[in-house]
Structure formats: C-alpha cells, structure tokens
Amino acid sequence: MKERLGVGKSHSKIILMGEHAVVYGYPAIALPLTDINVTCQIKPAYQSVPQAENSLARAIALAKDYLGKTECQLRYELVSQVPEKRGMGSSAAVSLAGIRAVFDYFQEELPDHVLTNLANQAEKIAHSNPSGLDVKTCMSHQAIKFIKNQGFEPLSIDLEAYLVIADTGIHGHTSEAVQKIADLGKKASPYLEQLGDLTLTAEKAIKAKELERLGHSMTKAHKQLAQLGVSCEVADHLVEKALAYGSLGAKMSGGGLGGCVIALIKNKTNAQKLSQYLKKEGACQTWIRNL
After folding, report:
1. Domain region containing 235
2. Do residues 93 and 144 both lie within one domain?
3. Within its chain, how far is the Cα of 177 from the centroid?
4. Helix, strand, coil percent values for the chain (each to nearest 5)
5. Burial classification of residue 279, based on how many CB atoms lie within 10 Å of its CB (0-12 exposed, 13-18 middle, 19 or more buried)
6. 94 within 8 A of 80, measured Cβ to Cβ
7. Are residue 255 and residue 167 in the same domain, yes or no?
8. Is residue 228 part of a domain?
C-alpha cells in the first residue's frame, strides 16, 4: 500500500533596496527568487516524533493545530536550496513549504490569507517581530514594495539586466545589526533618510528602465549601510570587486554583518562571468536572477 504523502514548495527572496531603513518607516523593495526553491514532504510517523524548536517544526505544528489534527504524528523531509541566515528568506520559505505540505497531506484547501497568517506566526521563531516582507515575497512571483504600517504593493520589473547574488559565506546577524543602528540613535537618522530616498530613486529608475540610475542608487546605498556599521569586510570586498569588474551597481543585501552581496550587470554572458569572478574573489556561492 502506497504511503500517504503531502508536498509543499516555496522559493527564496532577496532585498534589492531599503534594508534597515524599512524598520524606521522608509520603503523597501524585495525580489522573489523563484528558481531557488524549498520542498517539504510530510509523511505519517509511526512513533512519537521529538518536537524541534525551529521555524519549520513550528509551522507544521501551527498547520496541524489549525486543521484540528494535533494528535496526528507526522514526520517531514526537507530539501532546500536556500542557505540559512543569508538574508534570503530561508525561515519564511521553509515555513511556507511546511504549511503547504501539511494542508496537502490532509487534502485541505489553503487560502492565501491563512497561509500568510500561519507562516508569519512561525516566523516569530526566527524573527521575534517579523515585518511580513519575507513571507509576502516568498509567496509572490513579482517584486514587492513595502512600507511599515502602510503595507505591500507589487512592483513590475522588466529590465534588460541581471542581478548576481554572491554569498559571503558568513551568517548574517540581523538582530545584532538592527540593535547596532538603534544604539546610534539620532546619529543614524541622516543615513536612514538617505537610504529611504535612494529606494525611491531606485523605484523610479526601475519604472523608467534607467539601469545606470538604479545601479548608482545601489552603490550609494551600500556606502550608507557601511557607514552605519552593518556591512562586513568580505561584503565590502565583493562590492568593490563587482564594481571594478563593470557592474552598474553593487551592495550588501539583508540584515548584514554577513549574508549576501548583489550586483547589477547587463546581459547574461557578463552576469555569468561576474558570477565566476566573484567566486574567485571569495564568494562561496553565487546565483543569477533575470530582471
């Protein structure tokens, strides 16, 4: 007899502009990475399963509770292409995949608002006060603009360019970076305001298809983030090398103190060459996204 199986999938995300400033009411732009995926399989467990304390285990428990299936013993298998603690939405992606897998296992409908609510609850394991941006972007196939207390709106991007994402190989430390900026108090305000302005400039550049303007905004944003003390030596090095190679713009992405760097460049051939070059310069892994 064939074993019952539930399958759920999700994808990654990356912040294009606005990290940290978004905490203070300025806009942020996030991109879904639909080809960097997570798959979760749910199967019956024939003995008691120890309860792990992570986003995925929490998501599965929340989904079971919502469906009134708390007594059902389940086990899960996860295959993820999303590295943890790199600002790529790993915890949101695995939570979404886990919830979808549970609902699939029990053959239940899963409305988007229920999925969003459950995933954001699970996200509190990784982020004590999640904005919802990671979950929203990992559910989307379109870029998202987000402003705190105002909400989300889709952003259409159709550029003849590519984004190269380079992993520093260092775990990001979002909570530490957020606290670092909070400790600066009023001293951080000019940098955060500038980051907000640069995000709006980037949005206008995207709509006008002005690649140089978008790239310039990215590079200036990195300088602001570095001055706030949330970049790291490897990220600064990769940004410098990406720009020297001919990128239109480059910056750190996400919480910082590790994580990823992103670089904007024209055409796929150049993106592939830049990807290999950044690996030689210290990136442990790279991805290319068509913009």
Report:
1. 162-290
2. yes
3. 16
4. 45, 25, 30
5. middle
6. yes
7. yes
8. yes
| Residue ranges for the chain with pLDDT beneath 50 | none
Using the Cα atoms of residue 204, residue 209, residue 210 and residue 216 in order, give the sign of their dihedral: positive
Q: Among candidates 225, 205, 207, 208, which has minimal Cα distance to 216?
A: 205
What's the pLDDT tens digit per position in 3-30? 788 999 999 999 999 999 988 999 999 9
Confidence at residue 51, expressed as pLDDT on a 0 to 100 scale:
64
pLDDT tens column, 78-98: 999 988 888 898 889 999 999
DSSP state string for 212-235: HHHHHHHHHHHHHHHHTT---HHH
Q: How many domains does the chain have?
A: 2
pLDDT at 132: 80
CATH number of the domain where residue 76 is located: 3.30.230.10
Strand partners, 153: 145
